[in-house]
Amino acid sequence: GRATDRVQILEKIPLVANPQAKEPAEIASNIKYHAHYSPHFSPYKFEPEQAFYATAESVRDQLIKQWNDTYSHYHKVNPKQTYYLSMEYLQGRALTNSVGNLDVQDAYANALKQLGYALEEITEQEKDAALGNGGLGRLASCFLDSMATLSLPAWGYGLRYRYGLFKQLMTKTGQEEIAEDWLEKFSPWEIPRHDVVFPIRFFGQVEVNPNGSRKWVGGEVIQAVAYDVPIPGYKTKNTNSLRLWEAKARAEDFNLFEFNDGKYESAALIHSRAQQICAVLYPGDATEDGKLLRLKQQYFLCSASLQDIITRFKERLGGKDIQWLEFPSKVAVQLNDTHPTLSIPELMRLLMDDEGLGWDEAWDITNRTIAYTNHTVLPEALEKWSQAVMWKLLPRHMEIIEEVDKRFIIMIQSTKPELEGKISDLRVLDNNPQKPVVRMANLCVVSAHTVNGVAQLHSDILKAELFSDYVKVWPTKFQNKTNGITPRRWLRFCNPELSRIITKWLKTDQWVNDLDLLVNLRQFADSSELQAEWESAKLASKQRLANYVLQVTGVSIDPKSLFDIQIKRIHEYKRQLMNILGAVYRYKKLKEMSPEERKKTTPRTIMIGGKAFATYTNAKRIVKLVSDVGAVVNTDPEVNDFLKVVFVPNYNVSVAEVLIPGSELSQHISTAGMEASGTSNMKFALNGCLIIGTLDGANVEIREEIGQDNFFLFGATADEVPRLRKEREQGLFKPDPRFEEAKQFIKSGAFGNYDYSPLLDSLEGNSGFGRGDYFLVGYDFPSYMDAQARVDEAYKDRKKWTKMSILSTAGSGKFSSDRTIGQYAKEIWKINECRLP
Ligand SMILES: NC(=O)[C@H]1O[C@H](CO)[C@@H](O)[C@H](O)[C@H]1O
Questions:
Q1: Which amino acid residue places its CA nearest to atom 3 of ligand 1?
Q2: Which positions bear N6-(pyridoxal phosphate)lysine (predicted)?
Q3: Could you read off the pLDDT of 356-374 as tens digits, one per residue?
Q4: 138, 162, 330, 375: which is the annotated catalytic residue?
């Protein structure tokens, strides 16, 4: 049937290998070439999956040339280069992004048409590369896209996890986690570099050589092998690399004797231990995970990456004598949060123990090379590793960390005696007898030349609170770098309809890599012609979203209703609970209305999506509550024309690319001072979706840029929160009756017999663990509901709403990750573009 037709279609296509094909016919041939000569499936099979792999391989051909040219260009020019170390990269799918950045999208669409396929049908075959948890991981991926697009000599280093973030399955009992094997078949984008292999040691002991130098010996040694993923830039030939490390045991470590003795497990023990290292991404978002394997993963990333950086630094010297003091003028290392902090003692170890430098030289080089980005002020997310575990796994590094701590204390006592009393908080080691730990954030602040926050409010809070005493020691060390998102994936490629309109009215598509140009849309915000086009694009995206929701949940939603969306990791500080309590109150009021009254309301579809950390009970209860409320509301004939509540399962990058273009209102309602930045807020604003939110993270700057009239603001501000918590403890808090009514309605069993009192009790009482409404849901609920009422009113005036939507996009220029990376390059890394001729 169709399958044979496809093969017959394929038969007619000439079989010609042409890696640099640009014309559709040539491309079709090249795809056929890969279907034949890069076989991964049975012969004469060309189903969507086979077509995807063949297409991806033909695109990879196009990338490889630019990739190799870029590699040799950087080698030849030998510019200062940046190395971004991150435990997470949330890349999503690569095919659409690659053909888009190579500017061959239309050619590939035509070529596939000749092969009997639509490009969309093929791109959907690709699995998300979900090697990250949320904002921090996706930011790293947006940064890679901007570093390439700005033709900056920059590399990403990460781990090649076998299992990325779990798949979220929604069942009667709520969220279930399913392992997601993204490499089950293979990734067409990665290339193993069997000549880039480094030994990584664990455990063992430190030996002192006769000349007093120290050497780390013994323990177990695992090999780190590089797998490179191409990172194409937009409208540039530069194609950078994301180098992911895989772990494998040395062949000679396989114990043949034991094997022949039948002791198979122990014979292969070292191999299974090696496999464990990169097996799974730790699924905790904004929480630390103190497991030994996590620490092994972190060290594996740091050691492999630094050994590789030093090896290539030497290579680029072309045999000339090594001037180590020049290392920082050729190498900039950025730590994405504290997860790669071990880079600091590892660089010290490599410079002293392997290269023979003294402490002061090594320290000077390390300090001038490494910079650190902080992504959260949440206490439970600040990593502290047990000193005992560190001594066992990394004895040489613990020695170096002790020395850093000692020298820091001496420096404070000699240069900042007024801070003597603060040393126990500022020092790197916390030697409390219960559980002595290493404070990773302190080690980063003490060792790095620059520390930055990820939004202005967050950076101000770092300087005024978390790191305030360090500011007294190093007043110029602290910077702000407000986050950004790549406009390629998050507008140009995921919302082609809106992109076409923007290009038409701006008379250029330069905005795709010069996003500040969007401001020129402002002059047309009142134009009914633009508004009509804008609304039709939004409606088309809403229809696509509605089709997707029907497909994955079975719930049909009405594109004529207001599409209200909150998608992000489930966490109490992000207050999805306030959103669902608001929905419950809205439902209850609709039930109490007469049919006439209901008709006057603004129909709304509330969609919530996000994964909860498997052991985070309250987060899983929130997920269940949303789906239980939806199950009742959506099947209630009295109200389901006016309200629908949907939990969108398995939220990831590809789902976001469908949801964001079709959204009209998005919620970023965290307790002020707790969301460092947020980045989905930027993606929504860029796609003309209005925001209801608190003055938290990047919301503050988005509101400044798009205009406060186009932002539905509510809630306590960050500086009010400590006082409000205190007043709560003193029992001064008076709950809003709507808040009480919503809670009671849930407790009444209106949404099934699951016992939600443990979750709702977290909102009760004046204080105590898991109680006392620490995230101020009760305090902010009334202003939140008032803001939602303003939304309902505003949505009735479509002309006004569409104008606000256009002004939201027009004011989003600042939030391009090109602006962010441009600032990192200039103000932290001191690197320049190195564009291919
Ligand atoms: N864990 C995160 O996602 C963190 O990093 C992101 C990227 O800087 C921030 O936007 C987010 O507010 C923060 O919680």
A1: 135
A2: 683
A3: 999 999 999 999 999 999 9
A4: 375
pTM of this prediction? 0.97
For a mutational test of ligand 1's pocket, the pick from 480, 572, 679, 694, i.e. the residue with the most ligand atoms closer than 8 A to its C-beta, is 679
Beta strands (DSSP E) in 127-260 are 129-131, 154-159, 167-171, 174-178, 191-202, 205-208, 214-217, 220-232, 239-248
Q: Round to whole Å and give the CA distance between 361 and 342.
A: 19
Residue 141 Cβ < 6 Å to ligand 1: no
> pLDDT per residue over 179-209, tens digit each?
998 888 889 999 999 999 999 999 999 999 9
453 C-beta closer than 6 A to ligand 1:
no
What is the topology classification, in CATH, of domain 554-815? Rossmann fold (3.40.50)
Torsion of CA 547, 552, 555, 556, to 10 degrees: 10
Quote the ligand 1 centre to 676 CA distance (angstroms): 6
Look up 574 and say whether it is catalytic: yes
What is the tens place of the pLDDT at every residue in 144-157?
A: 999 999 999 999 99
Q: Is the CB of 677 under 6 A from ligand 1?
A: yes
Which is the closest atom of ligand 1 to the Cα of 139? 7
SS3 call for 124:
coil
Could you confirm whether 236 is annotated as catalytic? Answer: no
Whether the Cβ atoms of residue 174 and residue 258 lie closer than 8 Å to each other = no
- 730-775 pLDDT, tens digit per residue, is 999 999 999 999 999 999 999 999 999 999 999 998 776 677 899 9
